[in-house]
Amino acid sequence: MEEGVRLFREEVIPWLRDATGFRGWVVLFDRPNEKAIGITFWATEESMTDSAASGGVLRDEVAARMGTRMTSLSYYEVVLAEHLALEDAGDR
What we know:
34% of the residues lie in helices and 18% in strands. It is an alpha+beta fold.
């Protein structure tokens, strides 16, 4: 899973940073079940749902290189957010 995050960080995120409307991302791991959820944040609904602008093809290519696939895609509106202060990655 870490390799997938590395590829996403090195190949997809730089591209997304140049995309119109991209505002950030979060990845959540379920290590015992070897599952991950990636959440991206967008300025507008239009930039979120535009597959070309939101890197859908690139995301799928990275997943295929990892031997996995995206199993679902959902859209949500952020109605409340608080900044998270994450501890050191070694503190689990």
